[in-house]
Write a structure and sequence with these properties.
- The protein has 341 residues and is of the alpha/beta class.
- The chain contains 13 helices and 13 strands.
- The strands form three sheets. A six-stranded mixed β-sheet has the order 5-6-7-8-10-13, with helices on one face. A four-stranded parallel β-sheet has the order 1-2-3-4. It has a three-stranded mixed β-sheet with strand order 9-11-12.
- Helix 6 links the parallel strand 6 and strand 7.
Length: 341
């Protein structure tokens, strides 16, 4: 990472192309205290740095990510350890340089979606996701995994429906796949949620996962198998589980445990209340696939923790602990004891 100047960075319109995924400078790492975003259309990911831990007053709208050494900083700042602070910043910078298209389009989606109603922001995410599915970065990721194949025969995927009075429990029930969010699992979950939404008795709903974890996320062998991007967008938005969970309003809750990765976090994060067992962890790994969240995460997660911290989760691919998730507001409570099936 180059040494940052204390002087304000001035970029004119002729320079703007250079500061983009196409111009070679897809990321700008700047001193947060001395940066002001101009009206010039710079597409570079802007990372503001506060190495001294001073937490200067900034306009958060000028940045895509804000990093500080201050302990337990307020949102939207993200704390990095004092030891190796600049090394950690450089590592995040390198992720953008390695996946510039995915990082840029993710930031654009987060910025625009911040001001849209929930359902419309999901539409925006799906369109952006379909764009990245057709891009060179995702193709590169797929090529690196070309030797891997789908398992023999479709796994048993189901969603268990249980009702006791006015309480409904929907359980992802494919423990042998770590509740992988295959197309079949997604459709089963959406059908269950749709039935609950249509139920005139308006039951309370809890979302859980069977086995060792809530969900390890999408089945990697299914990524990119859709051949019609436009149709995939329509299916993705018609059967959006995040939209259905959000539509439950105060009736919806998620009780998480173990791994909550990718769509296994994006969907339950849309619930009005999210609880997690001790030992759970939360991760968004999509950027390193040349992608972005496609199951609602740029909306559900971002509306819980803000777009800056959501981008940090994507760039770092960090596994948030229950303590970190609670501090960020990603979950609402830690469960006192594990629930039993």
């Amino acid at each position: 990472m180059a040494e940052m100047s204390a002087a304000p960075l001035i970029i004119d319109h002729l320079d703007a192309d250079r500061f983009s995924a196409l111009g070679g400078e897809a990321v700008l790492v700047v001193d947060a205290a001395h940066f002001e975003r101009s009206m010039v259309p710079v597409q570079a990911v802007v990372i503001g740095v506060d190495a001294a831990g001073a937490l200067p007053a900034v306009d958060a709208g000028d940045f895509d990510l804000l990093l500080t050494s201050a302990p337990e900083p307020p949102s939207p700042w993200v704390e990095l350890a004092v030891g190796g602070f600049l090394r950690q910043v450089a590592a995040l910078e390198q992720v953008v340089r390695s996946w510039p298209m995915a990082a840029t389009i993710t930031c654009q989606t987060l910025r625009i979606g911040e001001f849209l109603p929930f359902d419309q922001a999901l539409m925006l995410e799906s369109l952006a996701y379909s764009t990245l599915l057709g891009g060179a970065e995702f193709a590169r990721w797929r090529e690196a995994r070309a030797h891997e194949s789908a398992p023999d025969g479709p796994p048993e995927t189901s969603v268990r429906y249980e009702r006791d009075g006015n309480d409904v429990i929907l359980t992802l029930d494919s423990a042998e796949t770590r509740n992988a969010m295959t197309a079949a699992m997604r459709d089963a979950l959406y059908a269950s949620l749709a039935n609950v939404l249509d139920d005139p008795t308006r039951p309370m709903v809890r979302l859980r996962g069977a086995g060792k974890c809530f969900s390890a996320g999408g089945a990697l062998y299914e990524f990119g198998t859709a051949t019609d991007g436009a149709q995939a967008h329509l299916i993705r938005t018609l059967h959006s589980c995040a939209r259905a969970v959000h539509a439950l309003g105060d009736r919806g809750a998620a009780q998480l445990h173990g791994a909550c990765i990718g769509s296994g976090l994006e969907i339950p994060a849309a619930a009005a209340r999210v609880e997690a067992q001790p030992g759970s962890f939360f991760q968004l790994p999509e950027l390193r696939m040349g992608l972005m969240p496609g199951a609602g995460g740029t909306v559900s997660v971002a509306r819980r923790i803000g777009r800056h911290r959501t981008l940090w989760m994507l760039l770092s691919a960090a596994r948030l602990t229950v303590t970190q998730a609670l501090s960020f507001g990603l979950i609402d409570a830690v469960m006192d004891a594990p629930w039993s099936e």
